[in-house]
Structures are given as structure tokens and as C-alpha cells.
Amino acid sequence: MIQTAQAPEPTIDRMPPFPHRSPAAHRRSAFTIIELLVIISIIMLLLSISMPSIGKSKENARRLKCMTNSRSQVQACDAYSVNNKDYFPPSNGPAQENWTYSFDIRASADPAPKRPMGIGLTLAQNLFNHEPSALHCPSLDTTTASPTNYHSMDLTVTNWWNSVGASWWKDPAYANFRITIGYSYRAPSWFNSSAGNRPKYIRVGPMAPTFVVNADILDPRFGVRWHHRDGYNFTRMDESTAWRPDPNLSIEAMATPGAPVDGRYNAGQEDAIWRRFEEGS
Description:
Order of helices and strands: HHEHEEEHEEEHH
Distance between the termini: 119 Å
Helix content: 25-40%
Strand order of the largest sheet: 4-5-6-7
Largest sheet: 4 strands, antiparallel
Number of domains: 1
Radius of gyration: 32 Å
């Protein structure tokens, strides 16, 4: 019988057995509570250092958005003037010839049906080609504790002044409600129509290009503290925008002497405040 050679059996390389580790070695490889607390403390310290810069970056972004919003409103007013003999939208109606607020877009004093006014006229004529959020300063504090809470874009709960937010401009359910926004439009109102030495309406041409039309001052008695905190955005007749620093609340100080009622300050104060923007002083 012929015997065939058998192939050798394949060998398998085996890993050496995992070395046994003593419980003491396990204990040495883990973090102690003290080490974890130190690491957490370092992380918290780094976060506390970086948070102010992060917050400032967010506010700078909101400030730029606000500036764009203000410019878009003046652009809409320019478009309105093309078909209205160069006049910007009036901010008062027959029932309130001598009285209005600069942040109303639907008349607060007119009986029903309430009519659009100021920036509201550009919405009514489809000249404002932006979302309602562009009528709202992104830095504006509209929490219930804020005196500017009724400028909330989405406000649906009416109040004693019977106003709602700009989001409900086209909602027929709120057709007879006053609507307020988060910007101030410089146009005839209680203080303008009561001052005989000034033009009654804003008109392209007679007004200088540096004439300031729009700003986020709201009621100056509680303005800057409730949005950018250290200054204001404003837009001129030529649609250029700028930032007016006011870290010391000097504009609010100008508006409060004599305890003006209901946010209406006299013509002299109003002129001086707008000149602050125009002169940069």
C-alpha cells in the first residue's frame, strides 16, 4: 500500500492571555472625585469667560438685523411717495389730526373700522415687501415685566389700549384693533401738528438727505433699556442707516423732564431728540 504524506495541521497563532490586573490597578486608572470636580470647575470657568463674548456676538447680529428692518421701512415710505406727490405716509387720520403715537400702524383713536397710518399705509398698499417680523426690533424685550411688552409682534391678548401685534395685520378678526410695532416713525403727530413752525408732513425734496425718518426709540422714557441697551439704530431720508451710541441713557433723560403723559413729549423735546441722531451729538 502506498502511503500518502499528510499535510501538517495548520497552526493558529494565539494571542497571549490578557494580563491579569489587580483591583489596585483598576482603582489607579479611574478619576477620583476631586479630579472630576477640578475638571468641572475648569470647564465652568471657561464658559463664564466665553459667555459674555457669545452674548455680545448675538446682540451685534440682532443690531444689524434691526438696522436692516429700519431701512426697509424707509424704503417702503420712499415707494409710497412716488404715487403721492413725494409725500411720505401721514401718521394721523381725520379723527386724530393732532394726536398719535409714532409706533402705531393702525389708528388708535379712529372709530371702527380703523384705518392704516404711517408705516401701515405702506402695508396696505403692498409696498412693504417683508415679513411682519421686520416691524419688530429683534432685541426688543417683550416679556410681561417689560414696559414695552405691548410691542410684541405676536401679541394676541388685547389690553386696555386695545392693541395687537403686527403679525395679525391681515387677520380680519383684528380688523378693528390698534396695531403697534417696534419702531418709531418720525411723522406728524401730537407734537408735530401742534408746532406751527414746522412742516406738517414729511416730503422728499424739502427734507435734507440727513433728515432722520425712522428709529427704534419707541417711547423715549423707556426706550434703549429695553432693546439694545446702549444705543439706537436710525435711518435717514437717503435710506442710509447708522448707530447712535447712548450708554448713559441721555435720550431718555431728555424725554422725561416734566413727566410727560402717555409717552407724548413736547415739541421742543421731540426736536432735540431727533437732532441728536442727525447731529451725532
